[in-house]
Structures are given as structure tokens and as C-alpha cells.
Amino acid sequence: LCSVLLCSLILCLMFADVMAVDKIEPNRRTNIIKTEGEPVTLSCSYESDSEYVRLYWYRQYHNEEPQYLLHQGARSSLTRHSSEPRFISSTSRIFTELFISSVTVSDSALYYCALRVKAH
């Protein structure tokens, strides 16, 4: 049997504020602990008056730079997949979610959601 430290994953979710009018924040600010193989969903809520919003997901390992995972248009109903097949993102007009289908120890990291408003 695995020890608690080896079988559990800690996923942290942070947020990035962009402007006073355009903002994004996690729906849950606590650590998420999962066992390997379990699915996990990370979620951020956002506000923007623009119709040209892109939502991004990043992962950052300890003492490393954030790594880009994926992005998609906020007003798009399409689900986006990253180059990593276990990562899927979906959006609505008020939130974005990152779904990891089967977490592994290597998924233990700090996750960021970010919002970018594109020029018309």
C-alpha cells in the first residue's frame, strides 16, 4: 500500500486579476487533495463586459516558471483539449473549468486561471 504522501495529490488554485472591469478568481481557494487515478475539476469565475475574452490555464511546479496548459474563447461553447489528453477545459459566460481525468503525482502543482481581453 502507498503511504498517504505518495498516494495523495495536492492541487492549488490561484487567480490572476486583469483589470477593474475584467476579473477572474478561483471558485475555491483551498488545496485540493486527491488520490492517484481520481478525476478533479478546477474552476474559476470571471466577469468581463467584452465579447472577446480568452481564458487560460497554467500549471506551476515548485521553484519553476508557470507552464501554459491551454486556452479558449470565453464565449465559445466548444470544449478544448490540451496536448495532454487528460486535461480538458470548458467555459460558460461566467466560469471556466479545467478537468483532469485521472490525476497523477506529477499533477501536484499550483494552477492558475487567467483572463485576456482581445482588441476588437
What would you say about this model in short?
This protein has 120 residues and is mainly β. Helix content is 3%, strand content 51%.
Task: Indicate how many domains the architecture comprises.
Answer: 1
CATH H-tier superfamily: Immunoglobulins
Computed Rg: 15 Å
**Within the CATH hierarchy, at the fold level, what is the topology?**
Immunoglobulin-like
Name the strands of the widest sheet in spatial order: 3-1-10-5-6
InterPro entries: Ig-like_dom, Ig-like_dom_sf, Ig-like_fold, Ig_sub, Ig_V-set, TCR_variable_region
Signal peptide: 1-20
Pfam family, one: V-set
GO cellular component, one term: T cell receptor complex
What does this structure look like?
Keywords: Adaptive immunity, Immunity, Immunoglobulin domain, Receptor, Signal, T cell receptor. This is Ig-like domain-containing protein. It comes from Sinocyclocheilus rhinocerous. Pfam families: V-set. The protein is mainly β. The protein has one domain: Immunoglobulins (Immunoglobulin-like). The chain contains 1 helix and 10 strands, in the order H-E-E-E-E-E-E-E-E-E-E. Strands 3-1-10-5-6 form a 5-stranded mixed beta sheet. Strands 2-4-9-8-7 form a 5-stranded antiparallel beta sheet, with no helix packed on it. A hairpin with a 6-residue loop joins strand 5 and strand 6. The N terminus is likely disordered.
